[in-house]
Amino acid sequence: MTDRGEWGITGRVASITVSDGGVPKRRVTAAQVTRAGVIGDRQRNLKYHGGLDRALCVWSGDLIAALQEEGHPVFPGSTGENVAVVELDWSEAVPGVRLRLGEVLAEVTSFAMPCRTIRSSFVGGRSGRISQRTYPGWSRVYARVIEEGAIAVGDPVAVVGAA
């Protein structure tokens, strides 16, 4: 169930995941987020991941659950997302939209393209199942951090407008 608070439609943070590079990322209950991303998280390939415009990778925990129901072995952190949110209309998460994640304000910059490193999360290695081009609305998104802060599992999440 969603709540219409001062920020608009709100959901909540379902998981936060980090790694020392690569996937799967491991779950943590809370983290500090800077403009460079989640403290304690690192990306192996900075050509395609990380950087100020890709500081956070955010995805829908509701979509993860739907993919699991389809038989895919995906789980929080297996596709490299830092934050999974639930109870939020994921169709709202498009480039230019700002999301409040706990204390953190982030702006969606792009859809995250699936790559070969996440193939094990999908039946038959078909990571294209979360391609925005092929399956609109199922993609992870990258975001830049506008306001740094703390984030924890259970924190509210809201679409707060566009840049």
In short:
This protein has 163 residues and is mainly beta.
Q: What does this entry look like structurally?
A:
The chain starts with a strand and ends with a strand. With 163 residues, it is mainly beta. It is globular, with a radius of gyration of 14 Å. The chain has one helix spanning 61-69, and strands spanning 3-5, 8-18, 26-28, 30-34, 37-38, 56-60, 83-86, 97-101, 104-112, 140-147, 149-152, 156-162. The strands form two sheets. It has a seven-stranded mixed β-barrel with strand order 2-7-6-10-9-8-12. Strands 5-4-11 form a three-stranded antiparallel β-sheet, with no helix packed on it. It has one domain: PK beta-barrel domain-like (M1 Pyruvate Kinase, Domain 3, Beta Barrel), CATH 2.40.33.20.
